[in-house]
């Protein structure tokens, strides 16, 4: 293994993120007035009804996100807009070529023996059809590329953002909700961008050009179209008002259902061990029923919109045909032109069906975009300073000075005015009852959280002022849950140092006693551990995570109940590795076992966020306090 001071660890790879490349200013909308502070981030997650001003703020935030996501493809979108204008203009001309031109102009000439009456309308019709088809193909392909580019950016930003957020976010914002943002919400947006926008643009352009042709050909028929617009506007406003609430409900109920599913599958061992399958299924059916009812309600609204638009369109066609028929009889309108106007009027309302489908997708996507934009607006509570201090070489000297901490602004103080100095190279065991503050102490040092007041320094440098790379290089933590990523044993050990050589990886495994069981696996270090390390035991997974931490070669090593999953033979191997490898490091070990405490230079007893006993193991045993009683209990269980 390389010496701690002789190399530089790859921190970004170790944490599967690249915060240097994460520029959220390009995707996160600017902050608004303080009156909307409660809507920032995900605080409005469960809200359904908002005031008019709140809806406006949320909509502006969502559109701002969509606008930023379109950066880089706006030129392509402009070209496709030109293409769709030309294609729909050509397509809208075909009824008038088939009606007014072919019948009123071409048919008399054809009867007089002039073949131009046949081929001129035919060629014009063919030219318009080919132009519309070619441009429509190009437009569809280009918009698909642009929409996928936008979705790619959003997916990437959601993933980067959720990794960059502090631990408190992930403790409050369940993994199921994060999955919902990345899957169902972005899928709703994909449906809108891939299909809905195409339908809207094509439909609107076709309606526009067809209406223009009708007005140019016969403005009195155009008045009928104008009259039909009034009920369409009222119907659209009614749908928008009701669908906005309905689709927001579907996004919330969908997220709740996904959260329950993810929790049940993640905790499947506990579910089956305690025979909770029926209870979890009943709860899931209840959530699925709520989602079903919300979807039925939203689809029911669309069931009113779509037939309503079709009814208005058919009534308009009937009015044009009836009025135009009387005018043909009076000689005020040509029969061919009437045919063209009737065909055009019927076709002008056909896109309303597509527009209704788009509006349906829009409401769903808007509700989803609200959730995504809220997530991307979250800010880490553990923030990096603009000009951090560097700490190239670290001895591992730790000092808490009048440090206090609470998990939320209105929550209780869980660490009270802590003054604690841990010299470099010292191994410290931290003991205490459950909830006493042991994990809080090490999480502050690992900088999952920042102290609320006071200071915490590493080699005299305040952690909040220390560069993120240097902190991650000098401080490593092994938790009780030994999480392994899908991949080989080798890849999981090298997670902390991807550039490590084969010999260094093997040396780290040997140091913690993992080499022997690894070599006994089917493919040795190339064995795929499968999801969450399902192919190897809990103790073996913990040994792999130990090897990962030792390979990082940090100045400070934190073990948060990290030996709790080990059986006695494995623990003995780990103890030997710890004794060899902790000699020149500062180590904090949350210990529930006597064997772990025995290798410590010093023991801290924590109670209610304060150090109530501090000294060497033997000193505290002799003192007859909490640790002495705990030691006696440990000894009794070991048969000593």
TrEMBL record:
<feature type="transmembrane region" description="Helical">
    <location>
        <begin position="222"/>
        <end position="239"/>
    </location>
</feature>
<keyword id="KW-0812">Transmembrane</keyword>
<keyword id="KW-1133">Transmembrane helix</keyword>
<keyword id="KW-0067">ATP-binding</keyword>
<dbReference type="Pfam" id="PF00664">
    <property type="entry name" value="ABC_membrane"/>
</dbReference>
<dbReference type="InterPro" id="IPR036640">
    <property type="entry name" value="ABC1_TM_sf"/>
</dbReference>
<dbReference type="InterPro" id="IPR003593">
    <property type="entry name" value="AAA+_ATPase"/>
</dbReference>
<feature type="domain" description="ABC transmembrane type-1">
    <location>
        <begin position="78"/>
        <end position="364"/>
    </location>
</feature>
<dbReference type="GO" id="GO:0016887">
    <property type="term" value="F:ATP hydrolysis activity"/>
</dbReference>
<protein>
    <submittedName>
        <fullName>ABC transporter ATP-binding protein</fullName>
    </submittedName>
</protein>
<dbReference type="Pfam" id="PF00005">
    <property type="entry name" value="ABC_tran"/>
</dbReference>
<comment type="similarity">
    <text>Belongs to the ABC transporter superfamily. Lipid exporter (TC 3.A.1.106) family.</text>
</comment>
<dbReference type="InterPro" id="IPR003439">
    <property type="entry name" value="ABC_transporter-like_ATP-bd"/>
</dbReference>
<dbReference type="GO" id="GO:0015421">
    <property type="term" value="F:ABC-type oligopeptide transporter activity"/>
</dbReference>
<dbReference type="InterPro" id="IPR011527">
    <property type="entry name" value="ABC1_TM_dom"/>
</dbReference>
<feature type="transmembrane region" description="Helical">
    <location>
        <begin position="118"/>
        <end position="140"/>
    </location>
</feature>
<dbReference type="InterPro" id="IPR039421">
    <property type="entry name" value="Type_1_exporter"/>
</dbReference>
<keyword id="KW-0813">Transport</keyword>
<keyword id="KW-0472">Membrane</keyword>
<dbReference type="GO" id="GO:0005886">
    <property type="term" value="C:plasma membrane"/>
</dbReference>
<feature type="domain" description="ABC transporter">
    <location>
        <begin position="398"/>
        <end position="633"/>
    </location>
</feature>
<dbReference type="GO" id="GO:0005524">
    <property type="term" value="F:ATP binding"/>
</dbReference>
<dbReference type="InterPro" id="IPR027417">
    <property type="entry name" value="P-loop_NTPase"/>
</dbReference>
<dbReference type="InterPro" id="IPR017871">
    <property type="entry name" value="ABC_transporter-like_CS"/>
</dbReference>
<feature type="transmembrane region" description="Helical">
    <location>
        <begin position="299"/>
        <end position="326"/>
    </location>
</feature>
<keyword id="KW-1003">Cell membrane</keyword>
<feature type="transmembrane region" description="Helical">
    <location>
        <begin position="77"/>
        <end position="98"/>
    </location>
</feature>
<keyword id="KW-0547">Nucleotide-binding</keyword>
<feature type="transmembrane region" description="Helical">
    <location>
        <begin position="200"/>
        <end position="216"/>
    </location>
</feature>
């Amino acid at each position: 293994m390389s010496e701690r001071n002789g190399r530089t660890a790859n921190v970004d790879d170790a944490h599967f993120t690249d915060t240097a490349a994460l520029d959220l200013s390009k995707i996160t909308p600017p902050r608004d007035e303080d009156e909307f502070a409660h809507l920032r981030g995900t605080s409005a997650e469960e809200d359904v009804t908002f005031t008019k001003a709140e809806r406006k703020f949320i909509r502006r935030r969502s559109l701002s996100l969509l606008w930023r996501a379109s950066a880089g493809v706006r030129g392509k979108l402009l070209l496709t807009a030109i293409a769709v204008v030309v294609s729909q203009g050509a397509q809208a001309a075909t009824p008038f070529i088939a009606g007014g031109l072919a019948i009123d102009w071409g048919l008399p000439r054809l009867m007089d023996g002039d073949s131009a009456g046949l081929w001129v309308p035919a060629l014009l019709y063919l030219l318009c059809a080919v132009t519309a088809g070619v441009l429509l193909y190009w437009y569809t392909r280009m918009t698909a590329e642009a929409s996928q580019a936008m979705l790619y950016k959003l997916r990437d930003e959601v993933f980067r953002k959720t990794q960059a957020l502090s631990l408190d976010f992930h403790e409050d914002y369940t993994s199921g909700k994060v999955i919902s943002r990345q899957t169902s919400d972005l899928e709703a947006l994909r449906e809108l961008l891939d299909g809905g926008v195409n339908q809207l643009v094509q439909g609107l352009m076709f309606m526009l050009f067809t209406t223009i042709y009708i007005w140019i050909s016969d403005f009195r028929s155009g008045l009928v179209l104008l009259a039909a617009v009034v009920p369409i506007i009222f119907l659209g406003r009614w749908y928008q008002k009701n669908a906005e609430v309905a689709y927001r409900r579907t996004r919330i109920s969908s997220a709740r259902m996904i959260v329950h599913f993810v929790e049940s599958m993640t905790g499947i061992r506990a579910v089956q061990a305690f025979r909770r399958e029926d209870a979890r299924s009943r709860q899931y059916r209840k959530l699925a029923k709520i989602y079903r009812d919300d979807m039925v309600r939203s689809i029911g609204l669309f069931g009113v919109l779509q037939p309503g638009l079709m009814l208005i369109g058919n009534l308009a066609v009937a009015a044009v045909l009836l009025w135009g028929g009387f005018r043909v009889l009076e000689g005020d309108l040509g029969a061919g032109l009437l045919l063209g106007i009737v065909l055009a009027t019927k076709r002008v309302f056909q896109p309303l069906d597509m527009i209704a489908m788009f509006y349906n997708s829009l409401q769903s996507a808007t509700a989803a975009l609200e959730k995504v934009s809220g997530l991307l607006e979250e800010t880490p509570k553990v923030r990096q300073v603009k000009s951090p201090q560097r700490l190239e070489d670290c001895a591992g000297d730790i000092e808490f000075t009048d440090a206090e901490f609470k998990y939320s602004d209105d929550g209780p103080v869980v660490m009270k005015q802590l003054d604690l100095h841990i010299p470099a190279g010292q191994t410290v065991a931290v003991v205490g009852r459950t909830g006493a503050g042991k994990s809080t102490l090490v999480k502050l040092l690992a900088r999952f959280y920042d102290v609320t007041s006071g200071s915490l320094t590493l080699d005299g440098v305040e952690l909040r002022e220390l560069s993120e790379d240097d902190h991650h290089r000098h401080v490593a933590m092994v938790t009780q849950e030994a999480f392994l990523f899908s991949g080989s044993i080798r890849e999981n050990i090298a997670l902390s140092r991807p550039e490590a050589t084969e010999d260094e990886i093997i040396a780290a495994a040997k140091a913690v006693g993992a080499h022997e069981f690894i070599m006994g696996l089917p493919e040795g270090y190339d064995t795929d551990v499968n999801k969450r390390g399902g192919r190897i035991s809990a103790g073996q997974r913990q040994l792999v995570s130990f090897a990962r931490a030792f390979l990082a070669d940090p100045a400070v090593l934190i073990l948060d109940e990290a030996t709790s999953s080990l059986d006695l033979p494995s623990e003995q191997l780990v103890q030997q590795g710890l004794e060899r490898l902790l000699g020149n490091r500062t180590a904090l070990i949350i210990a529930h076992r006597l064997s772990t405490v025995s290798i410590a230079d010093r023991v801290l007893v924590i109670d209610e966020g304060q150090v109530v006993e501090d000294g060497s193991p033997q000193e505290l045993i002799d003192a007859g306090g909490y640790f002495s009683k705990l030691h006696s209990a440990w000894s009794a269980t070991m048969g000593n």
